[in-house]
TrEMBL record:
Subcellular location: Endoplasmic reticulum
Gene Ontology molecular function terms on file: dolichyl-phosphate beta-D-mannosyltransferase activity; metal ion binding
Catalytic EC class: transferase
One Pfam match: Glycos_transf_2
Quaternary data: Component of the dolichol-phosphate mannose (DPM) synthase complex.
GO cellular component: endoplasmic reticulum membrane
ATP-binding among keywords: no
Annotated Glycosyltransferase 2-like domain residues: 5-111
Protein name per the record: Dolichol-phosphate mannosyltransferase subunit 1
Length: 168
């Protein structure tokens, strides 16, 4: 079901909006432009059942995961953000800036209540807070293909916000 909103209001509010309509015990979050291919969803479900995980995160940086269609600058920003987070916070997950994930609905609700970040750093905060709260995280290697239409919202302001959020 498509449940449109009046305008773009940010990722966190999109999660809250979607949770209002979700009827199952699990929620899959993915980019609507299909840069996250739905073919990986059965693997997320298998992984969740196999380890009874609270969250299953798609990873571009482990196993046969990868990124296609990004320029060098975008790859460096993503890798750099993940590296810095690994060094400073040791979250125990390999891809903190990706947004293709499966959550137990009640876990997503608890995390949304705790998270304060907006923008690029929001995905990282979700995983870091999940670890702090003792939730379990499994990973599935994915291929991420950059969008064909539209542009990334990742700019200088997002990078500064990410660094502030990381330090916070």
């Amino acid at each position: 079901l498509l449940r449109p909103r009046a305008r773009k209001l940010g990722l966190g509010t999109a999660y809250i909006h979607g949770m209002k309509y979700a009827t199952g015990n699990f929620i899959v979050i993915m980019d609507a432009d299909l840069s996250h291919h739905p073919k990986f969803i059965p693997e997320f479900i298998r992984k969740q059942k196999e380890g009874n995980f609270d969250i299953v995160s798609g990873t571009r940086y482990k196993g046969n995961g990868g990124v296609y269609g990004w320029d060098l600058k975008r790859k460096l920003i993503s890798r750099g953000a993940n590296f810095l987070t690994q060094v400073l916070l040791r979250p125990g997950a390999s891809d903190l800036t990706g947004s293709f994930r499966l959550y137990r609905k009640e876990v997503l609700q608890k995390l949304m209540e705790k998270c304060v970040s907006k923008g690029y750093v929001f995905q990282m905060e979700m995983i870091v807070r999940a670890r702090q709260l003792g939730f379990t995280i499994g990973e599935v290697p994915i291929s991420f293909v950059d969008r064909v239409y539209g542009e990334s919202k990742l700019g200088g302001n997002e990078i500064v916000s990410f660094l502030k959020g990381l330090l916070t």
